[in-house]
Specification:
This protein folds into two domains: about 10-160 and about 325-400, Periplasmic binding protein-like II (D-Maltodextrin-Binding Protein, domain 2, 3-Layer(aba) Sandwich), CATH 3.40.190.10; about 160-320 and about 425-470, 3-Layer(aba) Sandwich (D-Maltodextrin-Binding Protein, domain 2). Helices cover about 45% and strands about 15% of the residues. It contains 20 helices and 16 strands. It has helices at about 1-20, 50-65, 75-90, 105-110, 115-120, 140-145, 165-170, 180-195, 210-220, 225-230, 245-255, 270-275, 290-300, 335-350, 350-360, 370-375, 400-405, 410-415, 430-450, 450-470; strands spanning about 35-45, 65-75, 95-100, 115, 125, 130, 145, 150, 155-160, 160-165, 200-205, 280-285, 305-310, 325-330, 385, 390-395. α2 packs antiparallel against α15 (about 350-360) and α11 crosses α19 (about 430-450).
């Protein structure tokens, strides 16, 4: 409850600030090459992905020298939101902030930001940078549009996928990665002799993460929240006691009881080490980790393959939700700075940059034109991000995905998803506080057993109460 009380404090602060009205950034008569207007952008990356962003910023400034792009690193998405609230109080907000998908409802309620569609105002381009949102993949468009309008501009989009060590699976005659929960259990049974001989620690390992819970809910076409996942009306209930939710808890219990699952502790992030050291055959992770995971596997000469996230065959497959973040533009900016910010975001997410960002990270190439580019490469494409040298270079060959099949899995999975309220993902103001509670419940039920139905009914009461308190502040 301590964390939720902090959120309530933030919300009260937000409402107090909003009551004062938006205060524009310091006005500047004209943005010129001699006196460029600065565009401050908060992002959470500090590794090679930050280097890629800085390079993109430099490329933009070559085209638009009247603006200065300044990236500021934030420790985490949660920290970024907290820092933004404080910056708002001091009238020192960044021009653009990267906010994760579960912060969407909070971003809408705060009144901090101006809708991307309102900034664009029907224009075909902004400062010469084409808009072309129609090119963005449907599953991304469905998540980040609100009442048919773009609230923010997509950048880093991911989904959860399965990674399998085929060297281990091949030892017991398994030639394909598992597709379902049932196949995973069957594969684990075959691998148990390797566990008994201590050749591996266990069959499967991944972090207990509510994001996977949300993915499995969508796969079963189960709503995470009522009112069409908060999209036909404000969410007032979180459906952690539904049939689909209970199926997930039982799956964890079965995997752990049969000693198929290597658990490294809540929030410990130890499963990655278990998998990367060859001590487990199957893991689940974000597609955003594909470049790092596959690069490490290549160095260790491990045969790692990616495949769609395993699903509950008893319910069938409907689709997956996305993860990642979008870029929100602060409200109350000088018009010239506002246009510069939007022009940058349109450049940042254009066909070539979306394709290059995909190679640098493993995040989904958010545009259909980017996918077309990556499958029809020509010499001089200058798309591949060289992590060591911090620069772009040509992708050899004509098809990126033929030589890097692990990178195609996430896109194929999202494109295969049916469009339903469940797969559009939930909008609710207490998402940040909800996830740790579900994680703790999953851990407790898995380790200590018990009736998932009775347990999750109590969890639902707690989550719904939190949500009601949040909603009361925005009624």
């Amino acid at each position: 409850m301590r964390k939720f009380k902090f959120l309530l404090t933030l919300v009260v602060l937000v409402m107090s600030i909003a009551a004062l009205g938006a205060v524009p950034a310091a006005a500047q008569e004209k943005c010129t090459k001699e006196t460029p207007c600065q565009i401050d952008i908060w992002i959470i990356f500090s590794d090679h992905r930050y280097d890629w962003a800085v390079d993109a910023g430099n490329r933009f400034m070559e085209k638009h020298p009247e603006f200065k792009i300044n990236f500021v690193q934030q420790k985490s998405y949660d920290e970024s939101i907290k820092n933004y609230v404080l910056a708002k109080e001091q009238n020192q907000v960044p021009t653009i902030v990267q906010t994760y998908e579960i912060g969407t409802q909070f971003s809408l309620d705060s009144g901090y930001f101006k809708f991307a569609d309102d900034i664009i105002a029907g224009r075909k381009d902004v400062l010469g940078e084409p808009v072309n949102f129609e090119d963005i993949l449907p599953v991304i468009r469905n998540y980040y549009t609100v009442d048919g309008k773009w609230a923010s501009v997509p950048w880093n989009t991911s989904t959860a996928i399965t990674y399998s060590n085929m060297d281990i699976l091949n030892k017991v005659g398994i030639t394909e990665p598992p597709k379902t929960w049932g196949e995973t259990m069957a594969d684990c049974a075959l691998l148990q002799p390797l566990v008994d001989s201590k050749e591996i620690d266990g069959c499967a390992t991944w972090e207990i993460d509510d994001w996977y819970f949300e993915q499995w809910m969508a796969q079963q076409n189960e709503l995470f929240a009522n009112n069409d996942n908060g999209r036909s009306g404000r969410a007032t209930e979180i459906r952690v006691d539904s049939e689909g939710a209970l199926n997930i808890m039982k799956f964890y219990q079965d995997m752990y009881a049969k000693k198929y699952f290597v658990y490294t502790g809540l929030g410990k992030n130890g499963s990655g080490q278990v998998f990367s050291s060859g001590k487990a055959a199957i893991t689940i992770n974000s597609s955003a980790g594909a470049r790092g995971i596959m690069a490490a596997a290549a160095e260790q000469k491990m045969n790692i393959v990616t495949s769609p996230l395993i699903y509950n065959e008893a319910k069938g497959y409907t689709g997956n939700i996305l993860g990642g973040a979008t870029m929100w533009v602060s409200d109350g900016l000088d018009k010239e700075v506002e246009d510069g910010a939007m022009a940058f975001l349109l450049f940042f997410s254009n066909t070539e940059n979306a394709a290059s960002w995909h190679t640098a990270s493993g995040y989904v190439a958010i545009r259909q034109s980017s996918l077309d580019l990556l499958t029809n490469l020509k010499p001089g494409n200058d798309i591949l991000w060289n992590i060591t040298d911090k620069k772009r270079e040509d992708i050899p060959g004509t098809n990126w995905f033929e030589s890097n099949p692990a990178f195609a899995t996430a896109t194929n999975q999202l494109n295969a998803s049916k469009d339903t309220p469940a797969t559009r993902g939930a909008l609710l103001g207490t998402f940040v506080e909800t996830r740790p509670i579900i994680n703790a419940a999953t851990e407790d039920l898995m380790l200590n057993g018990g009736d998932p139905a009775a347990y999750m009914a109590k969890v639902k009461v707690q989550l719904d109460q939190m949500l009601q308190e949040y909603n009361d502040l925005h009624s």
